[in-house]
Predict the structure of C1q domain-containing protein.
Amino acid sequence: MEIMVFFSLLLLACSVSTNPIDTDIENHDQQISNQQPCPQDIHDVLRELTASLTEQKSLTLKQKVLNNDISLSLSATQVAFSAFLMNQGTGYTGPFPTLFTLIFKRAVTNIGNAYNQHTGIFTAPVRGVYHFDWKVYGKENIQAGALLYRNGEKISIAYELPTSGGVSASNAASLLLQAGDQVSVRLSAYSRIYENPDNHTTFSGHLLFTM
């Protein structure tokens, strides 16, 4: 549209004589001669404008692609979650004769949606080093233990055996994960943990850096 408007104005300028109407043939011929370069000038200007607009469109497209790549990169590297064992209420979990995956149902933070509060499993969205913390609370002379697992591999345990009252056990680990690796907290066999609205039993983690 800009090119068409400029073309019309330029053509109009070329068609207007700079001298008054003169019946003299020489002057008329001179006018025509002076107007001869106009079509060529129009083509030159149009070529320059077309090249300029094409370059501008190319730069705009590159910028959009770059912005989109930055957005995708940021969303993939913003990963953090923190979850509590129960949504509400008070109660015990366990004991069970075998390992039992704990489902931390109340996710107060879940940036990147890598933690599944329905299964209790965290799935790494990208390759990188992640840091995890977990804590359990037990009481009444029954052991309280929970293990951190990466896929099917046992990493470490948080464990306490209360002799009276209540005790809290916690641990932490930084793990190199591949995209798709899964991390969970599993209640150890014959352990029992207690939870109330104070949220003693927790599981959290975040991405430190990609690799």
About this structure: Confidence is low (pLDDT under 50) at residues 9-23, 69-73. The chain has two domains: 2-75, 79-210. The first helix runs from residue 2 to 15. DSSP finds three helices and 13 strands in the chain.
